[in-house]
């Protein structure tokens, strides 16, 4: 196995050095009748361990997958899971099937030189599919199975695709360059489907436990359906409550300077506050999310996991910088205004310190500010009419 992984790595290194792809592909087909997803993941992991930046591997991600076309082996465990109605791989696979049909439609419209805005909107719904991978699959691979590099590379490509589709949707001038960009991103999406089917999903299937899959299933309920695929019930998982949070009633009161409350009262209060609340402790571990609908999804499986594992590489760097500044005491708060799903949100990252000023963690507060925008727009309108 190790010799095979080393040989695969040699081929990937040659691609990175810019050698002729067709020649490399011919030699690869000669040397390998098949290759499994774990071998590919391990080869890429070795490349990253030697110091190759994630960004460089990200640029070659599609070329790498092209090398393995028609040589990846099917894994029985994955094939079985994709047929279990309601299983996460069942849903993700059907979303890919629907996406393939949509991409075929897109290629026809590109060929005709006429692409409807509605098609771009449909393509952009892939963001939900990618979000489920990013929140529910990649962190488990990184933290529990130490398959960090390849997961980070795919995560980065997902973000590139989302951003390009967003930018294309904003463009009013659909010129030749616009069509070329759309054609390129459609190709990248097709390659991502290949990587998911032949590398990502088989790797998850051969590593994840039944308990982990059930946790992923329950966390996936917080995500909207996408690409016209309706989420189905997985009866086996419905029998098991995998949530780690303590939900039993506790009659004992917690004594605080400002008063005393039961755990049940504290939990109800935190869930009533009109904010999405996240608390990360002084060791950078996710300790608490309040309950309820969220614009920024917070899987229950992320509790007890390092906060950095929950973010794609580009965002992870920013999160690390903010927390480092909090710990050094050079920063106490970072407010960020953003638009998401057509609404305005204020996201505030705040250092949490004890009575003596010692850093004990960080909190994130997300507030929907759409009510404020509507209020002030209304005020301005009324002012103009006076």
Would you summarize the structure shown here?
By secondary structure, the chain is of the alpha+beta class. It is built from 16 helices and 7 strands. Helix 1 packs across helix 3, helix 3 (37-49) crosses helix 11 (176-207) and helix 7 (88-112) packs antiparallel against helix 11.
Number of discrete helical segments: 16
- Reading off the top of the CATH hierarchy, the class of the largest domain is best stated as Mainly Alpha
CATH architecture classification of the largest domain: Up-down Bundle
Oligomer: single chain
DSSP strand content? 5-15%
Give me the CATH fold name of the largest domain. Four Helix Bundle (Hemerythrin (Met), subunit A)
- Strands, count: 7
The total domain count is 2
Order of helices and strands: HHHHHHHHHHHHHEEHEEHEEEH
Structural class: alpha+beta
How would you characterize the largest beta sheet?
5 strands, antiparallel
Low-confidence sequence ranges: none
Radius of gyration: 23 Å
